[in-house]
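User: I'll paste a sequence; please echo it back and then give the predicted structure.

Assistant: Echoing your sequence first, then the prediction.
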Amino acid sequence: MITRSFGEEVWMLSVNELFWSVGMVVGGAMMAVFGPRVKRRARLMVAASIGVGVLVIGLGVSTDFWVFSIAGLVICVLFQTLLVPAATVLQEQVEDSMRGRVFGFYGIVMSVSMPVSMIVFGPLADRFAVESVMVLAGVLLLGCLIGMLALGSARRSLATVDAAAA
């Protein structure tokens, strides 16, 4: 998307990768400092997911390289505020005898998601504007979240996770 939307200068690709990497490090550091104080982990994960969805849409509509890069940095901070509590919840909620299998499956899902997304979105980006694909991805994420939160059972499950941490 960088080369198609903003230019083919190598420094832009480097800055983009740097911002995303810094976002992951900053988010991880924030969770290391503040994570233990978080009592409503499910709410934090939902809020981070909503933020990611909105910012992914923002990536698609951004016409300024620096806005795009900063949005990427914030997305990566939000990824950490989503992934760290998710791992904590799994550690706390899954029985000891099942924990290895659950984390093994979790690892598979995390490892497979990037290549699968490239398989799905790569050809879409070749056929349609990359910006449109980004907007679609953000809208789909938000739609899935709204659909999930519309289910009473999902809301009760999230409330149970928050209650267990309190």
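The radius of gyration is 17 Å. The chain has a mean pLDDT of 90.
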